[in-house]
Design brief:
homodimer, mainly alpha, 3% strand, elongated, DNA-binding
Chain lengths: 147, 147
DNA sequence: ATAGCATTTAGAGCTAAGTCTAAGTCAAGC
DNA sequence: GCTTGACTTAGACTTAGCTCTAAATGCTAT
């Protein structure tokens, strides 16, 4: 159960460059090397890479991920810091998801608008569909006519 | 109804530096200047900044936002391109939201785990709560014990 | 009318996160 | 025994997106 850097790259969706970069940055400590000096990635390493993806994908910087790793390595005395970190990360993620929902509404409205405009051939869509004004105002606010 | 760069910065949540940078990059064409040479931001400019935020926030690069702006300025002949752009952006956003939901599950599980660990004082949580194994396996996969 | 602040410009500097280059090593297949 | 291809290293380079500096100008309140 050991992967070369290329195999680990495919498994994780990252490039070999990135994996070496992460190791250089201290995000992948304890990567074994075989007798020829090649890195050997374990399943644990792959799992950890997936955790990195999760934290990175929810907006955590590599620097903060490194902090988390330091807490992991420090053992049971840092359980509360780690718990708090995940709680904060959850709040951040909730806000982010709310924001994306708002963006989704805007984009959906734009699609509605442009679908009508594409049929008509021009952007004067509100005249034929005055009911859109209500929705537009709810999503974009009073003084945003949405071009 | 005109704002200084400082006021526009507050309204948009961006810094004056960023607003000047955006103008320099061609993302804010037609910003007026008053007799003293100061920029005057209109409500339309603020609205456009909010659209930029939406596109940027859903992962579009400034370069692609500039492309969209070019289509806007080109008039009705580009309605289909713009419609397609928003449709693609919507697909991207849907994937992103799915991903964030997965990350939320992972983070919630971690919070559950660390909450128990914090009570116990150590990480041997599965022994006292073997039902967690099921959930862990569903969220993280078979060969990921989740440290 | 002067102090204090916001603004202007051109251009330099910064940060995060990779990405690549060059020169070399090594194992496997022909 | 030679080629091919994946790997190694150190360190330079890239990209996106800002962020700041310096020197000058201009409004605003005392």
């Amino acid at each position: 159960m050991g992967y070369t850097i290329g195999q680990a790259a495919k498994k994780s969706g990252l490039s070999p460059y990135t994996l070496r970069f992460y190791e250089k940055e201290g995000l992948l400590p304890n990567i074994r090397k075989n007798s020829a000096g090649l890195r050997v990635f374990s399943q644990d390493d792959i799992n950890w890479l997936q955790m990195i993806e999760c934290l990175k994908g929810t907006g955590m910087s590599l620097k903060n991920i490194k902090q988390y790793l330091a807490w992991l390595n420090a053992g049971n005395t840092t359980i509360n810091q780690r718990l708090q970190m995940f709680q904060e990360q959850k709040e951040k993620l909730k806000l982010q998801m709310q924001l994306l929902n708002k963006y989704m509404e805007k984009i959906n409205f734009k699609i509605k608008l442009y679908t009508l405009a594409a049929q008509k051939g021009d952007m004067d869509v509100y005249k034929a569909n005055p009911e859109l004004e209500q929705e537009r105002e709810r999503i974009f606010g009073v003084d945003n006519p949405v071009r």
